[in-house]
Write a structure and sequence with these properties.
- By secondary structure, the protein is mainly α.
- The chain is elongated, with a radius of gyration of 32 Å.
- It folds into three domains: 21-100, Endolytic murein transglycosylase (Dna Ligase, domain 1), CATH 3.30.1490; 106-198, no CATH class; 202-308, no CATH class.
- It has a two-stranded antiparallel ribbon with strand order 1-2. A two-stranded antiparallel ribbon has the order 3-4. The protein has a two-stranded antiparallel ribbon with strand order 5-6.
- The protein has helices at residues 2-28, 46-55, 62-71, 91-100, 117-126, 131-138, 150-154, 156-159, 185-198, 202-208, 213-226, 230-245, 253-260, 269-272, 296-303, 327-338, and strands spanning 36-40, 81-85, 106-110, 175-179, 312-315, 321-324.
- It has 16 helices and six strands.
- It is 49% helix and 8% strand.
Length: 340
């Protein structure tokens, strides 16, 4: 009887010692507040995670974590990824954190009306996205590099673009919320889907007018850069179409700036003579593609321009617009605007 009581007593003492050792670490912990970056591989087991946690100084006993995994199935189903964990955390809190999955950084990304692929690329590089991954996805008109071919099958408005076309013009300007680990593809897909939604039916309308939607977008991008208000944009779109019908070159400073990447208010003579298919001072008709990502009012202006007899326009330094039907009228407007 005494032996039995002694054995029972030893068991209780052992359980008490075990509980005193295990319970505080398993359910309470002593977080230090200094986070440690930890990567959980896809094939990690509870045993492996326990060893990793000890090696990084996050917990004191891998055995304790393994024991906890036997009583809590959550610990047996970790999700791979990177975690910011606090040393001294309880086994329970760690197991639940790993079961929920890694925290994800979400960013707000804004593309303004009139900004180009260069602008978007620059912002993505600041977020740590590689230049190669961006260019392979969206292309580069300056380098005759096409966007990812798989996108053509997803979006009808991309199917008929030239083989060397970039996505310039088709990433709709807006503010987007996107997970960092989905960049750049997650952002670009959202931009393309928004473009698809915003321009629904416009391609069919362009065909009814005997035009291609590609040309409408090229014109819209120039109008975006050249016009200030919605009404101005409609008039300017009509002027460009008048010039094309009359066999005149567009002579848009905005297209020159796109070719040179100089972005000057008034291009230099050297700029105007740059050899580029986007230089509408040297080439007839519209450029081969858009020169920026236009907003909806610019696209609508290009699709439904205001009819007029004007062939010329200009803005003075205060942004006032002057229209003219003849070259003499245009010269007079230059005198008024610039005292030339």
């Amino acid at each position: 009887m005494r032996k039995l009581l002694l054995s029972v007593g030893l068991i209780f003492i052992g359980l008490a010692i075990f509980a005193a050792w295990f319970v505080p670490s398993a359910f309470f912990g002593s977080p230090t507040g200094v986070k440690v970056r930890l990567e959980i591989p896809s094939d990690a087991t509870a045993d492996k995670i326990g060893e990793m946690l000890v090696s990084r100084g996050i917990i004191a006993s891998s055995l304790g974590y393994r024991v906890y995994a036997y009583i809590d199935a959550t610990a047996q189903h970790p999700r791979s990824g990177f975690y910011d964990v606090v040393p001294g955390s309880s086994y329970r809190s760690l197991a639940r954190q790993f079961a929920l999955g890694p925290s994800r950084d979400e960013f707000s990304f804004r593309l303004l009306e009139g900004q180009s692929l260069d602008d978007e690329t620059a912002e993505l590089l600041k977020l740590g996205v590689s230049a190669t991954s961006v260019q392979d996805l969206i292309g580069d008109a300056h380098a005759d590099k096409s966007f990812a071919r798989a996108l053509r099958q997803q979006y009808p408005f991309l199917k008929d673009l030239p083989d060397n076309a970039s996505l310039e013009g088709y990433l709709f300007p807006d503010t987007y919320r996107v997970w960092k680990d989905q960049l750049p593809l997650g952002l670009v897909l959202k931009q393309l889907q928004t473009f698809s939604d915003k321009t629904s039916g416009m391609a069919d309308e362009a065909v009814k007018q005997g035009r291609t939607f590609k040309d409408v977008m090229a014109l819209a991008s120039i109008v975006e850069k050249e016009g200030r208000t919605s009404e101005e944009k409609k008039v300017i779109a009509g002027i460009f179409l008048n010039r094309i019908k009359a066999g005149m070159r567009l002579q848009s400073d905005a297209t020159v700036n796109y070719a040179t990447r100089a972005n000057r208010a008034r291009p230099t003579l050297d700029d105007l003579n740059v050899e580029s298919p986007y230089n509408t001072y040297r080439n007839d008709g519209l450029p081969p593609g858009p020169i920026c990502n236009p907003g909806l009012d610019s696209i609508q202006a290009a699709l439904n321009p205001t009819p007029s007899d004007y062939l010329y326009y200009l803005h003075d330094d205060q942004g006032k617009v002057y229209y003219a039907k003849t070259i003499d009228g245009h010269r007079e407007n230059r005198r008024k605007a610039y005292n030339e």
